[in-house]
Amino acid sequence: MQKKLWFLSIVLMVFVGVGCGSKSVSRIDIDTQMDLSGKWNDTDSRKVSEEMISDCLSRPWLGRFQEEKGAPPTVIVGSVRNQTDEHIISETFTKDLERAFINSGQLRVVASRDEREEVRQERMDMQGWSSEESEKEFMQEVGAD
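User: That's the sequence. What structure does it adopt?
Assistant: Structure tokens below.
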């Protein structure tokens, strides 16, 4: 009985000693991105968007097009397909690309298919309800190059 009590007290002291051990805490720089979960997050999304944008704007076709035509190309940013197992909202990439293209001044962006359809529907509604001076004409859209 006394051996068991002696053994339990030693085991208890070991657990207390391990449990009371200090943990080291290290500080990191404010600008350092730290992924704590290992899952897809906003930082990953931003990094991918930045990489896609820099890749698109650094390709040689852009300079050649501007030299040949004398104007920036007009593009439609298509949808981005998610082929991963992660739940990723791919529309974020589309909007980031459109915003970066417009802000860079190197590309003109035409609205997506759904947005163009919405504008066309609005123009059709205007035909019967707006004054002739403020109506927008059909088939006067800017096309992509």
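The mean pLDDT is 83.
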